[in-house]
Amino acid sequence: MSDQEIVHAYEVGDQVASASYHLTRDSLVRYAGASGDFNAIHYRDDIAAAVGLPGVLAHGMLTMGLAVQPVVAWLGDPTLVSGYQVRFTRPVVVDPVDGVEISVVAKIGQIDEEAGTARIDLTTTVNDETVLGKAQVRVRLP
Amino acid sequence: MNPDLVGRAFEKTNSYLVGREKVREFSRAVFSSSPVNLSVEAARDAGYPDLVAPPTFAIVVQELTLGQLLAEEDAGIELTHVVHGEQRFDYSRPIVAGDELTAQLNVTSVKTLGGNAMVVAESVVTDSEGEHVVTAVSTLVVRGDA
Prior knowledge:
Chain A is of the alpha+beta class and 142 residues long. In chain A, 27% of the residues lie in helices and 36% in strands. Chain B has 146 residues and is α+β, with helices and mostly antiparallel strands.
């Protein structure tokens, strides 16, 4: 298949990928170590409560980091991602026992066939409420 | 929040050496299943010298510049009052294990909204050749309460 045919195989609005992720407190500890973000609101209930949060929160950057993964899996290559932006619109509370389920749906937002690029729009939800706004991935199409 | 932060000259950070195991650890933490993030062989087959970092890995380098911002005594930013509002990355090329990266912080905007302040911190990340790798832009909301 030529590149041209792949580009033409998609239209604006098409869903290209979806996935869901189960986050637990373990996931937060793992991300804290990997990223170096040791803000205590991501692992201590007492501190989260003291600063007025509804519970221990997932790192925004963890949510951002995993939300792009379905797009990467669809592209088959993380290096085709040339830009990525999100707004953190709602905190993701991670229950100590049950954790939390995050769902991601990725759709084509815009295609530039001449440049061979596309904007992929992500809808990232917890309990049917979106947690990321204006979540856009700029990609080079394979 | 101190509006004088806009345009202030910050020192470039010390260089950050991107480690192979750090890339693996970060990749697992963001639920990556991409072979080029995890397998050196797959990365080399794809034409890279070593493991490729996931798209949000640049935050690890940008964090060094956000540390500079919080350390400014006259900034008026208390970490426990900081909420991450927005984040973006614009890449010239992917980050690869073995890269030695430095970041240059530039505060592009400070706005006050009600009791809160919004600061936009832009970090330009370059490699050891001085070539642009990624620009990372964080919008931080500093809550004025408590």
